[in-house]
Amino acid sequence: MHPSQSELLQLKNLGLASVNILHSIGIRTLEDLNRVGPVEAFASIRRRGINVSRVLLYALQGAILDVHWNDLDPDLKASLVSEAEQLISRKDSA
């Protein structure tokens, strides 16, 4: 296992499949995830044609905050989804 894989695997909500997806968009560390942010990371994944649900978006935010994704405030979840949808649609129309 690559050292960066093990760092990401230590985060809440992230398993091997999620870590592999993050690696595919160049996110290899928690620092990378913090720099890019959960919304941009999720949008990048979707733009690559990888079929992921909103739960991954929540999981990424939860990983950054060190909380289980299901414990995120519903308003925060709604805000994340709104931001991601706007970002994805902006990039699709460009």
Q: What descriptive keywords fit this protein?
A:
6 helices, DNA polymerase, domain 1, mainly alpha, globular, 94 residues
Please characterize this protein's 3D structure.
With 94 residues, the chain is an all-alpha fold. It has one domain (3-93): DNA polymerase, domain 1, CATH 1.10.150. It contains six helices and no strands. Helix 4 packs antiparallel against helix 5 (54-65) and helix 4 (38-47) crosses helix 6 (74-93). The chain is globular and about 35 Å long. The model has no long low-confidence stretch (mean pLDDT 92).
Topology of helices and strands:
Elements: H1 3-9, H2 16-24, H3 30-36, H4 38-47, H5 54-65, H6 74-93
Q: What oligomeric state best describes the polypeptide chains here?
A: single chain
Kindly, what is the distance between the CA atoms of the first and last residues, rounded to a whole number of angstroms? 38 Å
Radius of gyration, taken over Cα atoms and rounded to an integer in Å: 13 Å
- Helix and strand string, N-terminal first? HHHHHH
CATH superfamily: 5' to 3' exonuclease, C-terminal subdomain
Biggest beta sheet attributes = none
Based on the coordinates given, report the CATH architecture.
Orthogonal Bundle
Question: What CATH first level would be assigned?
Answer: Mainly Alpha
Residue windows where pLDDT falls under 50 for at least 5 positions: none
Strand content: under 5%
What is the β-strand count?
A: 0
Class from secondary-structure proportions: mainly alpha
CATH topology: DNA polymerase, domain 1
Number of helices: 6
**Percentage of residues assigned to helices:** 55-70%
Counted up, domains total 1
The overall average pLDDT, rounded, is 92
Q: Please tell me what the overall shape is.
A: globular
